[in-house]
Each structure stands twice: as C-alpha cells, then as structure tokens.
From TrEMBL:
Species annotation: uncultured Thermomicrobiales bacterium
Protein name: Uncharacterized protein
Chain positions covered by the region annotation Disordered: 40-59
Length: 283
C-alpha cells in the first residue's frame, strides 16, 4: 500500500471524543507500515503481555482504527431495509449497500495520540466483535479506494460486518453519508467529491472512527431489526473508550455497560410498562 497516497488525506484531527493528532506521514506509517514514531508506546497484543495499562476510570483516550485491502466491491444490498423473511440475520444487517473488501491480512491497526501514542494490532475478528456495529448507533468510517480515475473518498456508516478469515474478506452493511458531523474523519470527509463508489475498485484503506458514545435507551423492535429509541440515557451521554487489552469499547468512567442498561430499565417507565422484562439497553 502506498503510504504517501494515504498521507495526502490526513493530518492532525480530533476524534469524536478527543484529539487524534500527529503528522499525516506518521499517521500513515502507523496505519499501513505498522511502525510508529520513536516516542510511541507499543501496545502489542493481549497474548504478548506487553503494552501500557488499560485506561483508568475517567480517562477518555481516543483511538482510530485502520484496515487495508487489496480490492473491493460496492453493491446494493438485496436485503436492504428489511430483515430476512425467515427471521434470520442477513449479511449487512439490512443496510442499503454491501461493501465487500478482499485481500485483508487479518489485523486491524489501532492507535491513539498524545500523551500515550498507543498503537498496535487487534485480530480483526475480535475487533469487529468489540467495536459495536449495531444499527442503533453504527460507527462512521472513511473509505479511500483506488479507482480508474484516481482515489475515491466516501464517508459511510458501517453495520453488522461479516469476516471470512480464510478468504481474507470483510463484508459490511453500509449507508452512504452526504455529510459528516464529527471531528475524527473531518479532513477526509472534506475531500469527498460525491456520494458514490464504482461497483469494483482496487486497493483500499478503511479508516474507522472511535467508539460510539452511549446516548439513548433502546428496545428491540423484533428479531434482527433496527432497535427503536425510547428516551435519552438517564444522566446524559456517556463516553466509550477502546480497551486494547480486551479489544472492545467500555464506558470511560469504569462502570460496566450493564450499569447503564439497568438505569434504562429502572428509570424509564416505558421500558418497564411496555415489556415487563428488562429488555431496554443503552446505546
């Protein structure tokens, strides 16, 4: 992968929860060369036993994630908008499009900025399970794809991925975004010339935004359908932090996610009255 090509798209920017900084060249090196600046702190993997301690309660460390691919395709999702008629999950979670990316090496690169400058690689299967790509609050991403006319940049929401490790392919449900309101991908979003991708394209890099915050209480609307928002989360928005040690997003304040699920069910009358059982969840 040509790191100079990616470097042209990024410089110091803020994530949706904090600062993602450093030079564009350093960012590209972290993402694609799997190397780091001299003052970076390698996180390694959980098996290696190295790396910095996990974020302490109240610490709002911001991360960004990068996956690279040899080629890809972008097609309308035949199951877009509805779950499968048999009530079973479908690839892409009912999103309007399917983004299929091939030639993946099996690792997702993650990195934060100052003061820690943590970086490392997470097994893609564990990363996909830990970030939360549910339709209720999917993460945003910027895809930089090589096409016959040059680089094409689009901003997307990513939903319910499926990873085939043996084939080296990742398939995401995708929704095209005409505009981007966050900060982590702001620079690349400015370079989005349209909201379309060719059906097939060459080398690609997918830059995925930080952990989505918990903002609302939701209830299921049926098997594998998009949940329905009930009311804002009691106590307000809760930032979520990436944990390299268990490859997942957890509340930055140190409380488990179950604590906020309980608040939804205990403090929102509709959750109790409409269901009896505590089925509402924070998202």
């Amino acid at each position: 992968m040509d790191t100079d090509r990616i470097a042209r798209h990024f410089d110091a920017r803020r994530s949706r929860r904090g600062v993602i900084g450093g030079t564009a060249a350093g960012l590209a090196a972290l993402a694609l060369g799997r190397t780091a600046a001299q003052d970076a702190t390698p996180a390694g993997t959980a098996d290696a036993g190295g790396g910095p301690p996990p974020a302490t309660p109240g610490e709002d460390r911001a991360f960004m994630f990068v996956q690279t691919f040899a080629s890809g395709s972008f097609h309308p999702n035949p199951h877009g908008g509805t779950p499968d008629a048999r009530g079973t999950p479908t690839t892409g979670g009912g999103a309007a499009y399917l983004l299929t990316l091939a030639g993946h090496h099996g690792e997702t690169i993650y990195f934060s900025d100052r003061p820690d400058r943590v970086f490392g690689e997470a097994p893609t299967q564990r990363f996909l399970a830990g970030l939360d790509f549910a339709p209720a609050n999917p993460p945003n991403a910027a895809l930089v794809a090589q096409t016959g006319t040059g680089d094409n940049v689009v901003v997307l929401e990513l939903i319910e991925p499926a990873y085939a490790a043996d084939a080296g392919t990742v398939t995401y449900g995708a929704e095209l975004l005409a505009s981007y309101q966050g900060e982590g991908l702001a620079h690349v979003a400015e370079q989005q010339l349209d909201t379309a991708l060719p059906e097939t394209f060459g080398r690609a890099s997918l830059f995925i935004d930080d952990c989505p915050a918990l903002t609302d209480c939701w209830r299921p609307s049926g098997p594998f359908e998009v949940p329905i928002p009930m009311e804002p989360l009691p106590g307000g928005r809760v930032g979520m932090c990436w944990s390299w040690s268990d490859y997942g997003c957890t509340p930055c304040d140190g409380r488990g996610r179950g604590y906020y699920n309980d608040r939804c069910n205990n403090e929102i009358k509709r959750c109790r009255d409409e269901f009896g059982d505590p089925w509402c969840f924070a998202g």
